[in-house]
Amino acid sequence: xxxxxxxxxxxxxxxxxxxxxxxxxxxxxxxxxxxxxxxxxxxxxxxxxxxxxxxxxxxxxxxxxxxxxxxxxxxxxxxxxxxxxxxxxxxxxxxxxxxxxxxxxxxxxxxxxxxxxxxxxxxxxxxxxxxxxxxxxxxxxxxxxxxxxxxxxxxxxxxxxxxxxxxxxxxxxxxxxxxxxxxxxxxxxxxxxxxxxxxxxxxxxxxxxxxxxxxxxxxxxxxxxxxxxxxxxxxxxxxxxxxxxxxxxxxxxxxxxxxxxxxxxxxxxxxxxxxxxxxxxxxxxxxxxxxxxxxxxxxxxxxxxxxxxxxxxxxxxxxx
Length: 320
Hints:
With 320 residues, this protein is of the alpha/beta class. It is built from 11 helices and 11 strands.
């Protein structure tokens, strides 16, 4: 007698193994598209993952920077790619916001298959060390005296950094100018060159400049102080109740990519995050491993998409 259930289970397992093995043994190159310029945390994480997985799995992964339209050009490119696991998108959480504030030819939730939320980086508010501002209060007091003259740079428009900035200025009753950049790296370059007064960015992007006293951190947008900056208060401590800015980076694939392929890539990524050398390199860049994958990551994406929508309304961010 043939046991249909047992035969079906064995067949499905064999199919999953063959698809995963095919991806691992493929002579083709896996592309990781990064929708921002080189130098950003998104780019750094992509290159670190590509290097580690390539070394461990014996496959070729290349990182392609496709910046433009606040990350939407590269994101759309991946949304239209073949769902075969050969094209992936390394993105920050801002891709869930961009499509709600600008015209997009894709839906950030339904156009992609979530793979893993890899790392997060605390959001830090900084000024040039040559500036007279020793505290957030100093800057805001000056902003009250000179409405619209002081500025803040960050990736955008429509990023969580802009939302945090809007919350801060609204609560403080001041008017400052928001200056959007294609990525956090150029935003920090602007404050370093004193083209803007301040900047909001992930710790990973500003860590070296803060450590070398080129930038001064005035506040961290986290629930508690962060280990690298024990003397820098949170926004909550400075009177901005519950002002927190999430800043995470993950990998997604085009919609309809086979679940077996997603599981294979997820396994590679989780193994990479556990590698001691990778952990050390992430720590040096101010990045903290998360490793939230599969259904848990998918559920988180759906929830944050809705929550960001509410935040956009509350922040009165203009829809383009």
